[in-house]
Predict the structure.
Amino acid sequence: QVQLVESGGGLVQAGGSLRLSCTASGSIFSINAINWYRQTPGSQREWIAAITSGGTTNYVVSVKGRFTCSRDNAKNTVYLQMNSLKPEDTAVYYCHAYNGRIYWGQGTQVTVSS
């Protein structure tokens, strides 16, 4: 079992920054990567970024250059630093892990005002 707890969402003006955190507990040794997704009302969850246990990162084109994944293994925490935020980044953000089973965090709301 893996538990994921997110924090760090909020309201920010366009051009601003936020940092999301995803702290994992439980059988974290079985996790190879943490993914970040986001979802707006009426839409499917969209994959936006990932970081592997080795620190390799990948991003969807729409956030590349603005968002950065990092991890603190001592704290079992993955971060999503979001800079140059745009109103279209407004969504509920989720972290996700997979080890044969799928795990989701509870989600955190990010609202970017124009």
